[in-house]
Every structure is written in C-alpha cells, then in structure tokens.
Amino acid sequence: MWLSYGLLTLILIAGVAYSILANKLTVIAALTGAAVAILVFAGAGFTGLAMMTTFFILGSAATSVQSKVKQDLNAAEKGGRTAGQVLANAGTAALCGILIMLFPVHTYTLQLMMAASFASATADTLSSELGMVYGKRFFNIITLKPDVRGLDGVISMEGTLIGIMGSVIITAVYVIGIGWTANLIWIVVAGTLGNLADSVLGAVLERKGLINNNTVNFLNTLIAALFMLLFYFIL
Length: 235
Fold this sequence. Notes:
The protein is built from eight helices and two strands; from the N terminus they run αααααββααα.
C-alpha cells in the first residue's frame, strides 16, 4: 500500500511540474488536476490514473498539431489550460471516484462510467483539434448543411472517426488495467455519443451564448457516463 502511495506521489509531482513548466496548465490548474487525479486514483487505482494521463497526453499532442492553422481560425488554445477546463474535462471522473468511495458496492459500474467520461473527453478533444486540421467537409450537426470549420457544432467525418479512435484508446487502457468484459465495447459507444452530444450542445446552446465551452465539455462527459449507466442496466 505504501509503495502505491509513494508511486502516486511521484507521478503527481512529476505531472504538476511538467504541466507548469511546459505551459500546458496554469499553476492553479495543475494543482486542481492533481486533486482530481487523487480522486480518480481512489476510485479506479492506477487504471483510472492511466486513463486520465492518456487523455492529457493525447489532448496536449492534438492541440499542438498545426497550431498556426488553428490560430488563423481563431480556435487555438492560448496559454495553459485553466482549472475550469480541467474540471470540465475530468470533473465527472472525479465525481465517479467520490461515489466509489461512498458506495463501494457499485465500484464496477462507476468505474465503467468513469471510463466512458474519459472516452468522451478524449474523443471530443481529438475530433475537435484534429478534425479542424484533417477534415475535408464540414457540416452543422443539427442541419447537416455545410458550415464553417471551427465553429461550435460543426463536425467532419474525419474528425468523428478520429474521435472514435480516441474512445477506443481509452477503452484499451481500461482493458489492460481491469481486464476484458463484454461491457467494454459500450465504453466506446458511450464515449462517441458523448462526443456527438458535445457538438449538439455547441450548435444549439453554445453558439447562442447560452452556455460556455467548459459547461459543454462537462456535460458531454456526464452524458457519456449516464449513457454507460443506461447500457449497463439494459444489457
């Protein structure tokens, strides 16, 4: 047990230091991320931590791809991510960690929900960041009519497929840590549906200024987790 806590401490210190020095996160955001990581670890151990780390690495890498193109579209990240962005992307997973501590009898279900939330966050980030770069045709998810690349609610086939790949990667991390079960395919499905829900919320509410991007990101991970819960009980 002490070895696990020692390793966790080293990982958190390294993660906070790298995030700040590499300008990936603000100081407050890095500390917030460490707190979230502790809750995720409490709920799903090193598997949960691995999913969170995978999301962070993939998201950071995707954000860096052809940043000049994104700047021209006024869609590039400026400076380190904030604490609000950390909570928007990983807050649902942290809530799952808290619920696991409170209701350990539901650990398996809540761990699946945590995985689905990370799958959705990863799918959303990859499809947005890489879809803008590699997408060929862009259309509004509500009207299905051609629309401007980079606007809220605008997607591409390429970006959507990349997002699905992101969900698959998170599922693979979960499989390595927890083991294979038939329910795991639904992590990919829930992550993909959460990602699509993000685009719908962007087109319907964010574009009108009714909610901001952090709210959209939190809701897409929450929706994915709830989809996973629904699939679990139906199947």
